[in-house]
Amino acid sequence: MTDRLDLPRRYRHMVETLLREYVPDAEVWAYGSRINGESHEGSDLDLALRSPTLEPLGAPFTDLVEAFRESNIPILVQASDWAMLPESFRNEIARSHVVLQEGLPKS
Which residues form the Poly(A) RNA polymerase mitochondrial-like central palm domain (predicted)? Predict the structure, then answer.
């Protein structure tokens, strides 16, 4: 469900294209101001990426972060690897997020 995501369609398409290219197996959650109604034109896009095993994503994640940095997306995309986040922050994200990419089922 991405209807709560406040992101222009063209930017969302660019983000989703990079996600499919670099981390097709990961479930990706958007959270923060772009889903809670507090965003403005310059707000960043906060993403949490969850591997199917909930283990660190490794090199594909690093490559994705670099791809976001080098892209023409005119907003800052802040990607975090779920496995590397403190449990308290995971709980906060889990309470309010939008699934941007489904990923594979957990093994």
Answer: 9-55
